[in-house]
Amino acid sequence: MPDLLAKHAVVIGAGMGGLAAAKGVAPYFEKVFVLDRDALPEGPAARAGTPQARHAHALLAGGQKALEALFPGIELDLVNAGAVAVRGGRDITLDGPGPEPLPRRDLGFDLLCMSRALIECVCRRSLMKEPNIELCSRSRVTELVSSPDHSRVAAVRFEQDQGEPQTLAADLVVDASGRGAPTLSFLEKTGSPKPKRRNRDQYRVRNRHLRNPPRPGGGVDGRRAVPDPSAYAARRIASADGGRQMDRFP
Ligand SMILES: Cc1cc2nc3c(=O)[nH]c(=O)nc-3n(C[C@H](O)[C@H](O)[C@H](O)COP(=O)(O)OP(=O)(O)OC[C@H]3O[C@@H](n4cnc5c(N)ncnc54)[C@H](O)[C@@H]3O)c2cc1C
After folding, report:
1. What is the CATH number of domain 6-48+121-189?
2. Ligand 1 close to Cβ of residue 140 (< 6 A)
3. Ligand 1: does its nearest atom lie under 6 Å from the Cβ of 141?
4. Measuring CA to CA, which of 108, 161, 202, 249 is 20 to 30 A from 47?
């Protein structure tokens, strides 16, 4: 057990960034609070705070390995929760504009296919088993509070449903709120320089689920097609059930 660094860490946002950050810092703090403005669902359900989760997501091998290191046993938990293992290069291919599709070839590793909501759900369940991590639903952070000398963040202010604003002292704050609004407004308020942001507004994303034709001999067949850099179409996994059900959860 490593030595504790300090008392409270606060993570803003319970998306993949926030869940991973909470797990990473938990050994070093007495208590970690994860605040999310959404009502976090019990199962792998869509929610307002992560609208991008409805789009097709792929978990690449490096990310899967990193998650397994952070959440030991997560690969098995995901499979038990309904994720489908496919063989990289053989069962799933990537089609892009330009060159011909790559020939199918077993690249020697398995990839897990599931919805993003399922990954979040399995990570949330893992965090709920940690005695020093508290997931706080319906807790919208409204402000980062600076220390009296303005040298650091000392607390976060947040609101729960219709309740009174509350303040939580923090030795460390991780802003995993996606667009980082709390941090940007803190930097502005304290007259600190803001980071440069890339303008990605020129991109628009569209995708839909399609059903693959049955594969000779059965099994799983997946293809992800990117026909044009500005338009995105993804054909997701068609499994034995014809691709109707991406998630199964007990
Ligand atoms: C169309 C599309 C396709 C993508 N495909 C892939 C893919 O295939 N593979 C991949 O790895 N990535 C993909 N991404 C990127 C991926 O979705 C993001 O990188 C990832 O969601 C970022 O996670 P995050 O936790 O940092 O932020 P988010 O997922 O945005 O989570 C932020 C969380 O913070 C909460 N929050 C926000 N403000 C507050 C507040 N003030 N107080 C409390 N809580 C707050 C929100 O409710 C939310 O839960 C895709 C993105 C898009 C848009």
Report:
1. 3.50.50.60
2. yes
3. yes
4. 202
